[in-house]
Amino acid sequence: MNTMEFDFGMVGLGVMGRNLLLNIADHGFSVVGLDLDPQKAAALEAEADKGKAVKGTTSIQEFVSSLQKPRALMLLVPAGKAVDAAIASLVPHLEPGDIIIDGGNSYFPDTNRRIVELEAKNLHFFGMGISGGEKGARFGPSMMPGGNRQAYERLRPVFEAVAAKVDGEPCVAYLGNGSAGNYVKMVHNGIEYGIMQLIAETYDLLKRGLGRSDEEIQRIFEEWNGSEVHSFLVEITAQILKKTDELTGQKLVNLISDWAKQKGTGKWTSQNAMDLQVPLPTVDIAVTMRDMSAYKEERVLAAQSLAIPSNPTESSENWYVLEEQLRNAFYFAMLTTYAQGLVQLRVASATYDYELDLQEVAKIWRGGCIIRAACLEDIRQAFATNPALPNLLLDPTIGQELLKRQEDMRTVVKLAIDRGIPVPALMTSLAYFDAYRSETLPTNLIQAQRDYFGAHTYERTDQPGIFHTQWD
To answer: What is the pLDDT of residue 263?
Structure first.
């Protein structure tokens, strides 16, 4: 084992790194892992199936020298300084043509910087988003690599073997130049924020707005997962709502704090969308609501002093109608959230020269990743039919799905307003739809206001040119 050349290397043998490396070994590749913690290096070999070529080490020199050339090695360490430190420790031992892959959630400008720095040393650097969590890493994630197209051929056999499969097709593809992979994963996470917020609001409407029991809500999400809203996030919601706390016998979800944490990828998505002037309201409000959740003490005080409307219980005759309307509203909002994220990818691709193929993006999101959903096949088909599609809302099939559900969406939003239940992501998704299909918007008045107080000028609808008016 010590003298053989390994196909693939992994730096960082935490749960994700170890699981992904074992996945690669299961598909017939020889693998070596590096971690400065001897216990993690030993755990890698202990968990490997007998007969598999799997080695763990704490020696950088041994790790690098045991890889076949050109070397392919991945970093699965925390984003930021840890990535730069790992690269700095590896580079003195590498040779021209070797490939380093960053498999963490690195911010895409950092990836751009690292590509330039390593190109100067004749080394290839890939930023690759990986989605699917611990289980996905072990049994088949969705992977989003970006970097040098020719160098990707060294990686392709490994990645296609270990990725999740949908209809026999691997959920991995070369996405584009530079930091394309990290950028696509960033937007993936932004969409994830949006859909999670939509599910939470739907749950809140069922629980506080309509007084449904925990058992009824769990049944609803479980049934919905067999419908057009089938997705990983709906599926795990049904499982979460079923879980009973071993200590108290209560539903565990009711004992979990409502202060939601975040690691920053949703914020990055929103910030960059604003830089690109791409409207991303559902993701924006999802980030905002996680921020709002941190104001727990103030919310407790406000709940005591700012009374909410009474919540009458729906009659059993109306209930099944409302359940269907809620499902339609959620599906409507989920589709518009994907639409917003894919517009951001289209604009970013043109701005940063990524050369993204949005059909490929939708294709590799269909399996393995956190935002996988049945509707992604329709989204893939939309871009296959029209690669230049500017917005999913303009696809005839998806447009009709939205039109069929818009009245139910409006009914649900009105219900939430009447009950005093905050559903900003649902509301914002509807507002995005209404704004996008509005031939005229009231921003003509905003242009006049800007010209009034700041002489910022405006354009006219009846003649070309730039104009300024002395309004007073």
So the answer is: 75
Distance from C-alpha of 185 to C-alpha of 43, rounded to nearest angstrom: 29
204 and 331 share one domain: yes
Q: Are residues 271 and 388 in the same domain?
A: yes
End-to-end alpha-carbon separation of the chain, Å?
85
Residue 2 DSSP label:
T
| Residue 192 is a catalytic residue | yes
Q: Which of 40, 185, 267, 363 is catalytic?
A: 185
How many independent structural domains does the chain possess?
3
List 40, 55, 192, 207, catalytic entry: 192
Please report which confidence band the pLDDT of residue 163 belongs to, taking 50, 70 and 90 as the band edges.
very high
| Alpha-carbon distance values, 184 to 349, 355, 377, 390 (Å) | 10, 12, 18, 17
Q: Are residues 169 and 251 in the same domain?
A: no
What is the token pair recorded at 375? 């509707």
**Cis? peptide before 70, omega within 30° of 0:** yes
Burial of 210 from C-beta contacts in 10 A (0-12 / 13-18 / 19+)? buried
Greatest Cα-to-Cα distance within the chain, rounded to the nearest angstrom: 85
Nearest Cα to 265, choosing from 108, 382, 141, 124? 108
Give residue 471's domain range.
445-472
Instruction: Tell me how far apart the alpha carbons of residues 281 and 298 are, in angstroms, rounded to a whole number.
Output: 25
Cα separation values, 91 from 65, 99, 112, Å = 12, 10, 17
pLDDT at residue 339 is higher than 50 = yes
Evaluate whether 50 touches 133 at the Cβ level (below 8 Å): no
- Token look-up 């303009």 returns 394
Judge whether 1 lies within some domain: no
